[in-house]
Amino acid sequence: MYRASIALLALLIGWGLASSGASGRDPCPGLPLSERPCVARSELTVNDTHAVRYAVSATESEGVAQILQLVQQSALEEHWAFLPEAGLWIETGLNENATLQVSEVEVDTDYLVALVSHFPRINLYHFHPAGLGADGTIPVGTPLSEVAASDREAVTGAFPGSADMLATFEITWMLEEAEADAEVRHFVISEFGIVEFGPTEAGRRELGAARHQPQAYNHFDLVMVASVRLGSYNVGRLFDEHRDFAVGELIAQLCQQISSPEYRMGYSPMIVRPSWIHDVAVSSTSF
Predict the structure, then answer these.
(1) Each residue of 198-256: pLDDT tens digit?
(2) For residue 196, what are the β-bridge partners?
C-alpha cells in the first residue's frame, strides 16, 4: 500500500535539520528535506521506528549484497531508493509489519516525490524475507522434483505482490503529475534473487494518456494475470510438468508468462558485478 500525496513536491533544496550534529555538518548532503531527520549509517538495515531516515553511502551492488543478507536475517521488509548519481541508498519504507506467512512494507511516496525532483534516476528496492510459506529456505538451484508440495507456494515469494504492482502504476501517474523526467525502476529481492518489474515504455505511454481517467487503463487486468499465473493451480502445474527444471528456471518462466507488451518482469538469480543491473542478460528484462 502506498501513501499518495504530492504535497512535498514544493520542497526545495537544503537539509538544515538538527540531525546534522554538533559540527553542523550535513550527514546527507544533496538530499531534499524530510519530515524525519537523516542519519548516516555504514550498512543498510531495517528501521521500524521511523524516528529517523537512514542513508547509506554504497554502490548498487554493495547495497544489493547487504539486502541479500537481510533477506536471511529479518522477518520485516524494508524499502529503499538507490540514487546512482549520488552513490547513495536512502530509506523510503514505512509501517513494516510481519506475520508467520506475510510480510509487508509501505512506501513513503511523499518523500519519493521530493527525490524525483532532484535526481534523474532512482532504483526502488524492497525485499521478501526468506522462508515465508516454506519449511526452511529453498536454494535456487534445487530441482523442482525435490521441492515438497507444501513448499511450492514459497517460490512465489520471488515476485512482487499485487500491491507492489499497483504501486508501479501509481508512481508512474505521480511522475506524470509532477512532470518529472526521472527514470524510476522497481526491484524485489528474495532468497531466489532479484525480479525487476514495472510498466514498459508502451505501458507508461498508456498510463500517461489515462492519467485523468484511470478506469480507462487495464492495469487491474495486468495484476489479475499475474495473480492467476502465480496461483496454486498454475504453479502446481508447472512443478508437475517440468520436474527437471531448477527453481530458478521456474521463476524465469513465470516472469515470461506474466510479461506483456505493457508490463514486464525480469529475473536474475544472483547479483555479483557492480554493473549487473545494466549488463545481466535475462530474456524477459527488456523494459
Answers:
(1) 999 998 888 877 766 656 566 778 889 999 999 999 999 999 999 999 999 999 999 99
(2) 187, 266
Q: What's the count of helices (H) and strands (E) in the chain, helices before strands? A: 8, 10
Write out pLDDT tens, residues 113-150: 899 889 999 999 999 988 665 556 788 899 999 999 98
Secondary structure class of 167 (helix, strand, coil): helix
Angstrom CA distances, 154 to 101, 148, 212, 230, stand at 10, 10, 38, 11
As a whole number of angstroms, the distance between CA 67 and CA 58 comes to: 12
β-pair type (53-57, 121-127): unpaired
* C-alpha count within 13 angstroms, C-beta hemisphere, residue 147: 30
Of 152, 177, 161, the closest CA to residue 127 belongs to 161
Those residues with Cβ within 8 angstroms of residue 119's Cβ, 6 or more apart along the chain or in another chain: 83, 85, 86, 182
Can you name the residues that pair with 190 across neighbouring β-strands?
Answer: 193
Q: What is the pTM of this model?
A: 0.81
Q: Residue 124 pairs with which residues in a beta bridge? A: 81, 186
Distances (CA, A) of 98 to 94, 108, 155, 192: 13, 18, 18, 20
Q: Give the torsion sign (CA, 227, 229, 232, 233).
A: positive
Report how far residue 180's alpha carbon sits from residue 16's, in angstroms, rounded to the nearest whole number. 25
CB atoms within 10 A of CB 263: 24
Distance between CA atoms of residues 130 and 139, nearest Å: 11
HSE, side-chain direction, 13 A CA sphere, residue 203: 24
**Interval 38-79: pLDDT, tens:** 999 999 999 888 888 999 999 999 999 999 999 988 888 899
d(CA 223, CA 267): 18
